[in-house]
């Protein structure tokens, strides 16, 4: 395991950076060829933000619904309590024996997607083998009556893996004992001028067997389908011969996840990084020849920095707080989201329909979200 841990260190990335990259790529509308094959049913629910009603706010709207829906999954189910306890005990025994266990995956974030950030599935596996995650995609070019801001595809999900069975030194097999989505696949609804289409959890959907690959697995021995999803489709162009991270492979569908270690930094350090980025953007606002369009863009970026950080903080809370406290915070969060939406609309009401409306609404949103971030951060100190 020591050898595997050293390989994992090469793949350290800060989750905050990944979420910011995804937000930026959605804004610019970039997509890869693979995006088309996943673009028929999608999902957005896991963040803590809101939904504002401006045409330029569609991207933000998608993320806004996420937390208010996904946080509901924090309450443990009675039907799985006993099995979860059993899984945790078995995982602990495996750890003591020096074998692979779900604990090895608990500090990782698994990604399956286009690579450009246009669509992806994010997966977290916990020590007891339970998991949760979200698939999402968006298409701002598809509009219709009642949804001029485009279409948002989303699936928030959670479930349980069976105990891993060893195939070889670098491969373990598991099955999904149960999986559920927050919204029924196929459901559609219009929210804040955007059409939400709820889907199955891509990447894990229709899985009959899941293979878990450990760092050090020979790349040439892995299925080509898996390698193509994680950046090793053509081994002739790669200097590496071994998989440098933990991987998850849906054998039935050929879908593959790569992983990144969640680098643990203090909440204080995390907030300092956000504040620095915000100050850099605020300096851009001081330019003498800046246009209103650029001002709108920069203010939106500031808002998204705090919006993304709110999601990062929320995920930290889910991992650290007990279910009773999270249930209380979830109710508070839903109420806060509703109040924020109202206040943002009020902030831009005076210039409704004008070019300044968006800037004023996002400016208020950034102010309120920053305050909420610091309020929730107190639970982590």
How would you concisely characterize the structure shown here?
With 381 residues, this protein is an alpha+beta fold. Helices cover 40% and strands 19% of the residues. The model is unreliable at 1-85 and 93-97 (pLDDT under 50).
User: In terms of per-residue confidence, which ranges show pLDDT below 50 for 5 or more consecutive residues?
Assistant: 1-85, 93-97
Query: Termini separation (Å)?
Result: 32 Å
Helix-strand string: HEHHHEEEEEEEEEEHEEHHHH
Task: Output the radius of gyration.
Answer: 21 Å
The fraction of residues assigned to DSSP E strands is: 15-25%
Class inferred from helices and paired strands: alpha+beta
- Major pleated sheet: 13 strands, mixed
Q: What is the percent of helical residues?
A: 40-55%
| Average predicted local confidence, pLDDT | 78
Q: What is the count of β-strands?
A: 13
Total of helices: 9
Shape: globular
Describe the structure.
This protein is an alpha+beta fold. 40% of the residues lie in helices and 19% in strands. Strands 1, 2, 3, 4, 5, 6, 7, 8, 9, 10, 11, 12 and 13 form a 13-stranded mixed sheet that branches. Helix 6 (267-285) packs antiparallel against helix 7 (292-320), helix 7 (292-320) packs parallel to helix 9 and helix 8 runs antiparallel to helix 9 (356-377). The longest helix has 29 residues, at 292-320.
Describe the structure using short key phrases.
alpha+beta, 13 strands, single chain, globular, 381 residues, disordered N terminus
């Amino acid at each position: 395991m020591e050898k595997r841990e050293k390989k994992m260190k090469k793949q350290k990335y800060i989750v905050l950076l990944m979420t910011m990259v995804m937000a930026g790529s959605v804004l610019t509308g970039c997509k890869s060829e693979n995006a088309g094959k996943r673009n028929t049913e999608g999902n957005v629910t896991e963040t803590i933000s809101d939904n504002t009603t401006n045409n330029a706010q569609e991207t933000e709207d998608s993320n806004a619904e996420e937390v208010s829906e996904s946080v509901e999954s924090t309450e443990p189910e009675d039907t799985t309590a006993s099995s979860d306890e059993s899984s945790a005990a078995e995982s602990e025994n495996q750890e003591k024996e020096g074998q692979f266990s779900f604990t090895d995956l608990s500090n990782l974030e698994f990604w399956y997607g286009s690579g450009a950030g246009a669509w992806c599935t994010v997966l977290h596996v916990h020590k007891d083998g339970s998991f949760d995650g979200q698939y999402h995609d968006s298409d701002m070019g598809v509009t219709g009556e009642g949804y001029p801001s485009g279409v948002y595809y989303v699936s928030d999900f959670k479930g349980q893996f069976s105990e891993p069975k060893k195939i070889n030194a670098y491969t373990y097999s598991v099955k999904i004992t149960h999986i559920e989505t927050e919204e029924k696949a196929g459901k559609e609804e219009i929210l804040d001028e955007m059409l939400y289409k709820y889907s199955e959890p891509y990447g894990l959907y229709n899985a009959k067997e899941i293979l878990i690959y450990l760092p050090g697995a020979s790349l040439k021995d892995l299925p080509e389908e898996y390698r193509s999803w994680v950046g090793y489709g053509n081994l002739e162009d790669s200097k590496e011969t071994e998989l440098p991270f933990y991987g998850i492979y849906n054998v039935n569908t050929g879908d593959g996840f790569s992983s990144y270690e969640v680098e643990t930094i203090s909440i204080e350090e995390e907030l300092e990084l956000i504040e620095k980025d915000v100050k850099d953007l605020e300096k851009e606002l001081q330019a003498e020849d800046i246009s209103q369009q650029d001002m709108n863009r920069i203010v939106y970026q500031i808002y998204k920095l705090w919006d993304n950080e709110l999601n990062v903080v929320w995920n930290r809370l889910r991992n650290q707080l007990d279910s009773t406290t999270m249930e209380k915070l979830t109710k508070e969060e839903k109420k806060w989201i509703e109040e924020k939406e109202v206040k943002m609309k009020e902030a831009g009401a005076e210039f409704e329909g004008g070019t300044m409306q968006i800037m004023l609404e996002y400016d208020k949103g950034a102010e309120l979200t920053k305050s909420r971030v610091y309020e929730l951060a107190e639970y982590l100190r």
